[in-house]
């Protein structure tokens, strides 16, 4: 049962793609939900069947051009992935591999002839494929992967080869079982010239599912989660690939071997290619937050009904959510979850607007990539933390597969390291900020450029990332550092987030500049000694991006009661974020000890104020019970059935309730 | 390969029960280690077979009296459990249920006749049993469990009954498959009188494994981890239990129904009974830390060989452990792991000395129970955090079952909520401190006693928990709050930990006293509004207990180089703990902003200094490779075999390494 306010909250959160979210809630019925306790084989069989049965209304393939069966709606496909994540994360990843990574690469890196030949089959799910980028030896440092593709003009073919064990493609979704084709990333070599990493469309299995000659396919075996995804390993032993199969949008090889590209610089070209795949990261971040919402819904609803220990003033036992410590864990996580929802919606909107506009201005492209990287890292880490605390908040019940939480935790766990390791991504964000986005996505050996970075940043001014005029007005409305400013002044929150980021960045620059002078003989140390500082600056930046998106999003809300509630939630997000880093704020005199204590008191007041709204806030996420699929949320009757083993059902039913 | 220093470190960590740890390393061969990717049935079959094959030298049953087949060495059995935890956590839990909980209850709560009749069979593993305490509706609040045992004088039997669904026993190990007997906790009722919770030894299956009449047994089904443990649900429908089967050490029922007990107060008797089961918590805490050591060993060794990204000054790629951010995560976790090792060893020693001494003085018993509760909570939470970061530190490889980390995470996850929910346990510790241990283990409705607590604590003086004279000397040697004091002055660390605990406790008392006056009408709120404060005081207390044990332990070390290394590790533990809570220390003027920054700088210096010792420190844990059982630690050759699916091995082998 959800109250009216919850429905109106949901409408706000549903955002621009509300129609897709509604369609998913209708079309993705119990047939699609998780099955606790499946074996790996059962899960793989079920998921590879279901992935082809996802109703088109859900919009998973909306991102492809209409002419090939898509809907020219990339934002829609990212939102569709989020909804799948709440139904079954294996299904979401399987779909993400097929249409996001594999299909997305063919579309973004290929040209007309590839599109016409392959997109229809890929979109229909007739041609299942892999995104073969990561190698055992090179995950984060993709630019240095070792698979080679040597061009032979005489045969007009490439010789695709895995030079040694550590160069095999690893953790590849769709490889172990279903993949017929693969987009393989390899070092393109023509004659003596190496042209850097390029993508090739390669058949890896024949019609009868046997590996093609020279292709060795292994199974990554059991994993922590995502049992329904057939991750595998692929090695190539001098496999012949037709010239036409080079996905040649950004680099072409003529029959005679002449190499041409619109982007002269190899590194620049490489990161431009990667840039076209940014949607994957956006989808992973959004899916992680979607899973966290499911976990919070389960834990909060359980905490509303589960009672433990009696209060001194009554024989009635106390519901878990009434305990301050319990509320603190769940409500602050709820506030973060709301904040990230607005940030994600904004990112998807901005990205899809940019894509709709055709050619994206370079600087804008870099900013979106940076935001996607930062939000992916923050959302996936937050999901891991949040789901863990939700599982603990449900006690022993939270450990049982029938209550969903173990699956949510295990399935999303890998999100912190795939589609870019979170630490590496945050470092990318940090370096982007240091160099004012210039070359942020150049190769990661930014150490050498530290000194340069220092120059760049001296006149750095933080750019507001949302509702600029509003944010500016709010910030200017409050005196800086005044102890007198009200703790719930939004402008104060914004300036606290801003000043922290600015100060951290400037400090990093100072240290880098000093290092560039004193450590000329140890270039690696110049950056490495400041790594923690740069990472702190990056996450401070993402915090600001999130708060600005939250503030801008709330401002847009017309529905007064909903807006009032969201304002409180925004207060809680801002204040609990400041509280969590109060050490830094005091260290840098942005917070006096007295005011720091006041912040904690204010957080606790908000927890009391929002206590009656906990249920409303999770209902606002709009996750259908069928998707939650948790036994502890079902009627006692159902649970009894779950408990009594069939042969003792009779005895079980004889148990008569007293009172 | 471990260096000489590592061997000497290991000897120190092995502590008083080194002989058992050595025996385990020898006797627990590859036959006992985890099997990645097993189904639940396979795991249960394997574990219930192996649990009976654990070599006696390992000492799992050492805690029982020699006359029945034990070795009168309770400390030994707790240490043995830790070693099992590094081999296979399902095996550890299965053994813990059989000999720790089930056997332990029969021994501690039963009397001579129970011991003679049952202990030999239990110790031999012929009589497998359950510890049926937790109910679906009552886990943490065990005192209010609902199962009833009504005595009938005419038949001299108890009528054991599950009044309704939520009163069924739940999550019970050994129930779903192997258990023949169960120690069942139920409300004893004689005539009109209720005597509180008592334990009964009850047959739940017949010789052919069928549930006894009136007993309904269900399967808890799939879980996040511990696949080898057959957790189940038990309900009793008016089951007749012979009078002799009451475990009557603390409460006796005469044939005519006359009830007698050496402890008049029901609550007091109940917690005395629970107190005898403290070993379980000690074993769980120690096992969690043991598992964290396995995870750290895997992550640190991987980080020593895994390279990613090239430094600007060389073509050679950088090993992960050289990155500041990576080192920060792993080395601070290593320091915590060492600190907790010393605290655990001390707890086991103190507890086993106390038990050896026969009757334990009441106050001492409460202190040991409190320390066991606090260390269980801190160690299990730390294990969850540490294993998670180790899994992330290994990237995609850390997500594969073949690399062990997923199993370590999933298997230990439940430790945070079983054998007492961590938050409830910390609250127990907090209340114990507030009331100066008096009645700490009385029922948890301490709210009413808040005012009383306030009185107790006014003249509270913290008691040093280890090497009193040494600690006192160190603390007195440094001026309080002097910015001049060296950051690595042990006395300064100790006094920082001490002052934080004392201040938090006194603050909680002040707030409770105020609440007792202003909230007379809302007794629940008196305590609840201060819950977060009390929990903070409790964890500050545990931090101090850990630091004092670490300091005392290092002091005992004769081997100079080992001692020097451990001193550095202790510096890192103390300073990173202070850094993590620097917000509090600044809020309460125990740290100036400048000094707080200096602490961070000092931590980073220690990370650089200890960097060359990372491998030594994990080798010091002495976890055999066979137990680690992680593919990423094996030779490339092995890994190749893992990769190539048999039918393509040939092709796989043809892959020739280049240069």
Automatic annotation (TrEMBL), chains A, B:
<dbReference type="GO" id="GO:0055088">
    <property type="term" value="P:lipid homeostasis"/>
</dbReference>
<comment type="similarity">
    <text>Belongs to the acyl-CoA oxidase family.</text>
</comment>
<feature type="domain" description="Acyl-CoA dehydrogenase/oxidase N-terminal">
    <location>
        <begin position="61"/>
        <end position="126"/>
    </location>
</feature>
<dbReference type="InterPro" id="IPR009100">
    <property type="entry name" value="AcylCoA_DH/oxidase_NM_dom_sf"/>
</dbReference>
<dbReference type="InterPro" id="IPR055060">
    <property type="entry name" value="ACOX_C_alpha1"/>
</dbReference>
<dbReference type="GO" id="GO:0033540">
    <property type="term" value="P:fatty acid beta-oxidation using acyl-CoA oxidase"/>
</dbReference>
<keyword id="KW-0276">Fatty acid metabolism</keyword>
<dbReference type="InterPro" id="IPR046373">
    <property type="entry name" value="Acyl-CoA_Oxase/DH_mid-dom_sf"/>
</dbReference>
<dbReference type="InterPro" id="IPR012258">
    <property type="entry name" value="Acyl-CoA_oxidase"/>
</dbReference>
<dbReference type="InterPro" id="IPR036250">
    <property type="entry name" value="AcylCo_DH-like_C"/>
</dbReference>
<keyword id="KW-0576">Peroxisome</keyword>
<keyword id="KW-0443">Lipid metabolism</keyword>
<keyword id="KW-0285">Flavoprotein</keyword>
<protein>
    <recommendedName>
        <fullName>acyl-CoA oxidase</fullName>
        <ecNumber>1.3.3.6</ecNumber>
    </recommendedName>
</protein>
<dbReference type="GO" id="GO:0071949">
    <property type="term" value="F:FAD binding"/>
</dbReference>
<dbReference type="InterPro" id="IPR013786">
    <property type="entry name" value="AcylCoA_DH/ox_N"/>
</dbReference>
<dbReference type="Pfam" id="PF01756">
    <property type="entry name" value="ACOX"/>
</dbReference>
<dbReference type="GO" id="GO:0005504">
    <property type="term" value="F:fatty acid binding"/>
</dbReference>
<keyword id="KW-0560">Oxidoreductase</keyword>
<dbReference type="InterPro" id="IPR006091">
    <property type="entry name" value="Acyl-CoA_Oxase/DH_mid-dom"/>
</dbReference>
<keyword id="KW-0274">FAD</keyword>
<dbReference type="Pfam" id="PF22924">
    <property type="entry name" value="ACOX_C_alpha1"/>
</dbReference>
<dbReference type="InterPro" id="IPR002655">
    <property type="entry name" value="Acyl-CoA_oxidase_C"/>
</dbReference>
<dbReference type="Pfam" id="PF02771">
    <property type="entry name" value="Acyl-CoA_dh_N"/>
</dbReference>
<dbReference type="InterPro" id="IPR037069">
    <property type="entry name" value="AcylCoA_DH/ox_N_sf"/>
</dbReference>
<feature type="domain" description="Acyl-CoA oxidase/dehydrogenase middle">
    <location>
        <begin position="130"/>
        <end position="239"/>
    </location>
</feature>
<dbReference type="GO" id="GO:0003997">
    <property type="term" value="F:acyl-CoA oxidase activity"/>
</dbReference>
<feature type="domain" description="Acyl-CoA oxidase C-terminal">
    <location>
        <begin position="494"/>
        <end position="632"/>
    </location>
</feature>
<feature type="domain" description="Acyl-CoA oxidase C-alpha1">
    <location>
        <begin position="275"/>
        <end position="434"/>
    </location>
</feature>
<dbReference type="Pfam" id="PF02770">
    <property type="entry name" value="Acyl-CoA_dh_M"/>
</dbReference>
């Amino acid at each position: 049962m959800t109250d009216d306010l919850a429905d109106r909250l949901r409408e706000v959160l549903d955002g621009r793609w509300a129609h897709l979210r509604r369609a998913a809630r209708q079309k993705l019925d119990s047939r699609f939900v998780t099955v606790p306790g499946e074996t790996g084989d059962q899960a793989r069989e079920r998921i590879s069947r279901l992935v082809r049965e996802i109703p088109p209304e859900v919009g998973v393939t909306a991102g492809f051009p209409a002419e090939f069966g898509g809907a020219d709606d990339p934002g829609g496909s990212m939102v569709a992935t989020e909804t799948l994540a709440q139904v079954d994360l294996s299904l979401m990843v399987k779909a993400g591999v097929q249409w996001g990574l594999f299909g997305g690469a063919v579309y973004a890196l290929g040209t007309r002839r590839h599109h016409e030949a392959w997109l229809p089959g890929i979109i229909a799910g007739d041609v299942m494929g892999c995104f073969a980028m990561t190698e055992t030896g090179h995950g984060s440092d993709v630019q240095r992967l070792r698979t080679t593709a040597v061009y032979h003009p005489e045969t007009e073919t490439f010789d695709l080869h895995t030079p040694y064990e550590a160069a095999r493609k690893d953790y590849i979704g769709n490889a172990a079982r279903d993949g017929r084709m693969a987009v393989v990333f390899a070092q393109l070599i023509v004659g003596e010239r190496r042209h850097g990493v390029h993508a090739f469309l390669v058949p890896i299995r024949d019609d009868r599912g046997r590996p093609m000659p020279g292709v060795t396919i292994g199974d990554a075996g059991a994993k922590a989660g995502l049992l329904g995804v057939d991750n595998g390993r692929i090695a190539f032993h001098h496999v012949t690939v037709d010239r036409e199969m080079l996905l040649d949008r950004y680099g072409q090889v003529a029959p005679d071997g002449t190499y041409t590209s619109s982007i002269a610089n190899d590194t620049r070209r490489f990161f431009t290619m990667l840039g076209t795949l940014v949607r994957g990261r956006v989808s992973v971040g959004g899916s992680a937050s979607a899973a966290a919402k499911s976990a919070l819904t389960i834990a909060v609803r359980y905490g509303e009904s589960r009672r433990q220990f009696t209060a001194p003033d009554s024989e009635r036992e106390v519901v878990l959510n009434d305990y301050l410590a319990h509320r603190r864990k769940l409500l602050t996580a709820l506030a973060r979850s709301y904040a990230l929802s607005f940030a994600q919606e904004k990112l998807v909107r901005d990205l899809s607007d940019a894509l709709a506009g055709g050619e994206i201005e370079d600087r804008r492209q870099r900013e979106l990539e940076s935001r996607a990287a930062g939000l992916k890292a923050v959302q996936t880490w937050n999901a891991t933390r949040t789901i863990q605390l939700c599982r603990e908040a449900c006690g022993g019940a939270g450990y049982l597969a029938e209550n969903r939480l173990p699956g949510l935790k295990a399935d999303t766990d890998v999100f912190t390291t795939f589609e870019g390791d979170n630490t590496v991504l945050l470092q990318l964000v940090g370096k982007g900020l240091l160099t004012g986005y210039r070359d942020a996505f150049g190769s990661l050996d930014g150490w050498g450029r530290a000194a340069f970075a220092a120059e760049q940043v001296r006149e750095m001014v933080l750019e507001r990332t949302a509702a600029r005029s509003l944010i500016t007005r709010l910030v200017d409305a409050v005196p800086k550092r005044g102890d007198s400013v009200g703790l719930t002044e939004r402008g104060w929150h914004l300036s606290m987030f801003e000043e922290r980021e600015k100060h951290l960045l400037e400090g990093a620059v100072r240290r880098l500049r000093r290092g560039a002078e004193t450590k000329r003989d140890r270039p690696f140390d110049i950056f490495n000694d400041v790594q923690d500082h740069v990472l702190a600056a990056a996450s401070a930046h993402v915090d600001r991006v999130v708060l600005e998106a939250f503030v801008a999003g709330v401002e847009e809300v017309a529905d007064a009661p909903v807006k009032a509630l969201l304002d409180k939630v925004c207060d809680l997000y801002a204040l609990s974020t400041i509280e969590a880093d109060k050490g830094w704020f005091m260290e840098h005199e942005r917070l006096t000890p007295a005011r720091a204590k006041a912040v904690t008191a204010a957080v606790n007041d908000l927890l009391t104020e929002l206590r009656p709204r906990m249920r409303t806030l999770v209902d606002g996420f709009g996750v259908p019970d069928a998707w939650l699929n948790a036994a502890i949320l079902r009627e006692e009757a159902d649970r009894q059935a779950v408990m009594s083993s069939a042969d003792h059902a009779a005895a079980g039913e004889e148990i008569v309730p007293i009172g």
